Amino acid sequence: MTFTELLTQIFTGNNLALLGAALAVILAGMGSAKGVGIVGEAGAGLLSEDPSKFGKALILQALPGTQGIYGLITAFIIILKLGLLTGSPAELTVPQGAFFLMVSLPIAIVGYFSAIKQARVAAAGINLIAKRPDEVGKAITASALVETYAIFALLVSLLPILFVQV
Q1: Looking at residue 32, what DSSP letter applies?
Q2: Torsion angles phi and psi, residue 92, rounded to 5
């Protein structure tokens, strides 16, 4: 088997689409895992001083986890579009597979970076509620503003996937 034949077998339309689905889950999930960890570290410091603030800290810690969910939703929609769960998978051309790969990149990349940036804002919010517990709403709002860009990326990824005919 030649190298060209090997590449032709590996880079099929279906494999490219699955690569897009995998990147959406992996990158957005990595960002969320790192983000939740960043806020968890800040929250642990707060809770060592005042365990009664657990609920407020937990809300802030959960916020960076949504990007991973967005990546998972994107991957699941791709898998459904490919018919992999129905038993009759579609046979995509390489350009069709490349399409799915490319439209997965917004949520994969923006999901990764926005989760980490959101975590930094949420960790600052942990510091805010350490000194002023009544200001938790402001801390959540500031962190949620970063979420807006992850939602934009989700829409940019999902809308083409939902409306393309396979």
Answers
A1: H
A2: -85, 145
Cβ atoms < 10 Å from Cβ of 164: 12
Q: What is the pLDDT of residue 104?
A: 98
CA-to-CA separations, 14 to 93, 130, 140, in angstroms, rounded: 8, 50, 40
Q: Which pLDDT value is given to residue 9?
A: 83
Distance (Å, whole) CA 80 – CA 134? 44
Give CA–CA dist 105/27, Å, rounded. 9
- Average pLDDT of the chain, as a whole number: 95
Question: Are 23 and 153 in contact, with CB atoms under 8 Å apart?
Answer: no
Distance from chain centroid for Cα 162: 18
Threshold 0.85, pTM exceeds: yes
Q: Which of 92, 83, 85, 111 is nearest to 25 (CA)?
A: 111
Model confidence pLDDT, tens digit, residues 49-72: 999 999 999 999 999 999 999 999
- Kindly write down the DSSP assignment for every residue of 60-129, as one continuous string: HHHGGGHHHHHHHHHHHHHHHHHTTTTT------HHHHHHHHHHHHHHHHHHHHHHHHHHHHHHHHHHHH
